[in-house]
């Protein structure tokens, strides 16, 4: 497995299935773009342990479940156009509502819909 990699761009490849947990074992990753695929299941929670991650884009997939807590270094986030649910983690509410749009049942700030 790669031990040093700064950027991973697998966007627009029609990839499907779940994202391997090992992918997020590369601690040097600063940018991850998995957008425009058909990934499903949940976003691996191990993404939270990537302390160098600045950009995380998993938009336009079929991810379900909740959004993992964010790495502290995150500056750009897009999880829009998936099937995500549950409240948005409080550390992510500083991002624009566009980062979360068109999901199945996400709720809480910055979105207008209130969690029940």
Radius of gyration: 13 Å
Major sheet characteristics: 4 strands, parallel
Instruction: Count the domains.
Output: 1
Could you state the order of secondary-structure elements as H and E? EEEEEEEEE
Low-confidence stretches: none
CATH topology: Leucine-rich repeat, LRR (right-handed beta-alpha superhelix)
Task: Just give the CATH class.
Answer: Alpha Beta
Q: Strand fraction band? A: 15-25%
Tally the helices: 0
Mean pLDDT: 91
Give the distance, in angstroms, between the N- and C-terminal Cα atoms: 42 Å
Please tally the β strands and state the result. Answer: 9
Q: What topology, given as strand order, has the largest sheet?
A: 1-3-5-7
CATH superfamily: Ribonuclease Inhibitor
CA-based shape? globular
Question: What distinguishing features does this structure have?
Answer:
four-stranded parallel beta sheet; 9 strands; mainly beta; 22% strand; Leucine-rich repeat, LRR (right-handed beta-alpha superhelix); single chain; 116 residues
Description:
By secondary structure, the chain is mainly beta. It has one domain: Ribonuclease Inhibitor (Leucine-rich repeat, LRR (right-handed beta-alpha superhelix)). The chain is built from no helices and nine strands. Strands 1-3-5-7 form a four-stranded parallel β-sheet, with no helix packed on it. It is globular.
């Amino acid at each position: 497995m790669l031990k040093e990699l700064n950027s991973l761009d697998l966007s627009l490849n029609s990839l499907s299935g779940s994202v391997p947990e090992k992918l997020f074992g590369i601690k040097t990753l600063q940018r991850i773009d998995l957008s425009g695929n058909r990934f499903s299941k949940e976003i691996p929670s191990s993404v939270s342990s990537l302390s160098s991650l600045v950009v995380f884009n998993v938009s336009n997939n079929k991810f379900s479940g909740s959004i993992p807590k964010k790495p502290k270094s995150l500056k750009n986030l897009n999880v829009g156009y998936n099937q995500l649910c549950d409240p948005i983690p409080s550390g992510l509410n500083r991002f624009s509502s566009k980062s979360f749009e068109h999901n199945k049942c996400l709720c809480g700030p910055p979105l207008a819909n209130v969690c029940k």
